[in-house]
Design goal:
heterodimer; A: mainly alpha; 3 helices; 76% helix; B: mainly alpha
């Protein structure tokens, strides 16, 4: 971070984070359209949860003291990756087994 | 951004906080990963059969993460020589931003995770190939060949050649002659590509005792080997046009690009002294990346053209 203070570094990451939220919504919608899942709850639910998680992460990062931000960022990245992994397995299960996996008596 | 994570700035203590997010991304060797993703995507698109776009995306993601994981394990094992080489001394482990244990743990988790994900969500043939590739790169190349033989890059190059085969297997679930042909092109491409760099950086390799061909056999022999491998590569790269994997456009591209590749290899062989020699090596190194990218891009474009028609 040559010529950059930790504060500027953090501000830059927060800016990038909000762009990531916007990009996630757009990309998810495009993928949803491409695979024909964009209207289904099984697709919309994990995407919505993902956007909420990302927004909450940015809020948590903003409230963290500057000196602790690298640690916080790592923790958030690990949490988001684990959440992403769960969402990925969820979506892949729906795709492999078909939409009928949800259409059963509870 | 990396030195933010070095010490506790609040207390001034020299207690390591571990690397920043950027350091962990650097452990994955993102530039190598980008070529792996592209060649794997080409294999996936060329394979006969269909794959759901989401499953295809997961396959590429798992291959990319597996390739990154092997990069992290490579940096863990090679930290001692990386620290003494100019080109690699600022990598996260030798620079002290990430501990070797952290790099090892990170690499192992990603390796196992990527293989299991590929197996469970795509198919186990592709997953086995990915596991073999990671093991080959880390154990056979990094731990064994790299420090023991000047043929390290020839045999070890197989690890970098597997991704299109894994992409292919993700769709078809098997290994065919066509996918083996894609493997062979990258396999034969690797020595001239890497030796062009090794010629320029041979002092670095000599200092740390890595027996690269220019260090062991000399610059003259390396230049001769570059020409030999280039002469093998150019006709080999034309073969997909003959087997039907590529079309007319690919055939033309392979001939034209191959001609340029051969000309640059001969230039490396003929110009042996002064800054012109170094420039010739950099030209071949740079063009070799473009060459492989364009060959696979044309294959990909032809396939997309066929689909759209």
């Amino acid at each position: 971070m040559a010529g950059e203070t930790p504060q500027q570094y953090g501000d830059d990451l927060i800016r990038k984070g909000w762009w990531a939220v916007a990009a996630l919504i757009v990309v998810a919608e495009l993928i949803g359209l491409a695979v024909g899942l964009s209207r289904t709850l099984s697709f919309r639910l994990p995407v919505t949860l993902g956007v909420i998680a990302l927004a909450a992460s940015i809020y948590a990062f903003q409230r963290t003291p500057v000196a602790r931000r690298p640690q916080k960022l790592r923790s958030i990245a690990i949490a988001l990756m684990l959440g992403g992994l769960v969402a990925m397995f969820y979506a892949a299960t729906i795709v492999r087994l078909g939409g009928n996996v949800l259409n059963r008596p509870l | 951004m990396s030195n933010v994570g070095l010490t506790s700035q609040a207390t001034g203590d020299a207690v390591p906080l571990g690397g920043s997010l950027g350091d962990y991304v650097a452990l994955l060797k993102p530039r190598v990963m980008s070529l792996v993703v592209f060649t794997a995507l080409t294999g996936l698109m060329l394979a006969p059969g269909r794959i759901h776009p989401l499953i295809g995306f997961i396959a590429i993601l798992a291959i990319a993460v597996g390739a990154g994981a092997s990069g992290a394990l490579n940096m863990w094992w090679d930290a001692d020589i990386d620290a003494r080489m100019e080109r690699t001394s600022q990598r996260p482990v030798p620079a002290g931003r990430v501990t070797p244990d952290e790099a090892l743990t990170f690499g192992m988790i990603l390796s196992i995770g990527s293989v299991v994900t590929l197996g469970v969500l795509v198919n186990w043939v592709a997953a086995c190939l990915l596991a073999f590739t990671i093991a080959f790169y880390v154990v056979v190349y990094t731990m064994w060949l790299k420090r023991s033989t000047p043929q390290n890059i020839v045999i070890g190059g197989a690890a970098g050649a597997f991704p299109p085969m894994i992409g292919w297997a993700a769709v078809s679930g098997d290994i065919t002659l066509d996918s083996f042909l894609l493997f062979l092109i990258i396999f034969v491409w690797t020595p001239p590509h890497f030796w062009a760099l090794a010629l320029v950086k041979s002092d670095d390799y000599a200092r740390v005792g890595v027996p690269m061909l220019p260090v062991v056999a000399g610059a003259h022999e390396t230049r001769r080997q570059i020409v030999i491998y280039s002469a093998l590569l150019v006709p080999l790269a034309c073969l997909p046009a003959a087997t039907g994997l590529g079309g007319v456009a690919y055939g033309i591209a392979a001939i034209v690009l191959g001609g340029v590749f051969m000309a640059l290899a001969i230039k490396v062989w003929r110009v042996t002294e002064g800054p012109e020699a170094t420039r010739a090596c950099w030209q071949l190194f740079g063009f070799s990346i473009l060459y492989l990218f364009l060959l696979f891009a044309v294959l990909l474009a032809e396939r997309l053209w066929i689909w759209s028609a």
